[in-house]
Each structure stands twice: as C-alpha cells, then as structure tokens.
C-alpha cells in the first residue's frame, strides 16, 4: 500500500506525519461539514505508475495547502491530522512542507523539493496596536 509522508514546518520546527490516501479521504469527509473544501484527488487510481502516483501526491499537497490558505481558523480535525498541537497566532508562516512517496517494503522513493507556504506575506509586519 501507499503512504504519503507529510513534512509539517511550523514556527521553525519540523515534523513528519505519514498518512494513507484513505486517511485523507476520511479527513475530507469530516472537513466538508465545517468548511468549504477544495477538490480531493480521485479515490480510484487505475494503475500505480510513478506518473499517476506523482499526480496524486501533488493533488494531495495542493489540497492541504488550499485548506490552510483559505481558512483563517483551521479546524481542530485538520490540525490533529497534521499532528499539530498548538497554533501560534502571529506571524503565521507555517508550511505544509512537501510529500515523499514511500512504498511499504521497497524504497522506490521519488525525490521532491520541499514547498514553503506562507499564510500571510512574511515581508509585511503586523500592524502595531
């Protein structure tokens, strides 16, 4: 079976979470009740060729990043999914990092560049009260 390794970078700290597609799908179903969700990549993948797997990986990465970008307040179920305990208020410069494909036994990993995502423009200071 296929596992996606999610790199979560928050407040300068990095950790990894491994999730199967079914866990993404379960998250999507729960999130739909609370927020407007982006499209999630199709549940059914006909063939397990690297190109198709890479498209699914990119789709899931985009899914997570879109949820973060479009929601000022992230639902607890989303934070739990990413294994995030505490969300600092300002400045929000967290990232959803990148994914690595990891196969169960054999290590036919694809190499990926990490992706950094800023929720607000990191070059604009928050207004002084």
From TrEMBL:
It comes from the Eukaryota. GO terms for cellular component: cytoplasmic vesicle membrane. It comes from Erythrocercus mccallii. GO terms for molecular function: phosphatidylinositol phosphate binding. It is a peripheral membrane protein. Signal peptide: none annotated. Belongs to the sorting nexin family. One of its GO terms (biological process) is protein transport. Pfam families: PX. InterPro entries: PX_dom, PX_dom_sf, Sorting_nexin_PX-domain. The lineage of its organism: Eukaryota, Metazoa, Chordata, Craniata, Vertebrata. It is found in: Cytoplasmic vesicle membrane. This is SNX24 protein. Keywords: Cytoplasmic vesicle, Lipid-binding, Membrane, Protein transport, Transport. PROSITE patterns: PX (PS50195). Residues 1-107 form the PX domain. Its main location: membrane.
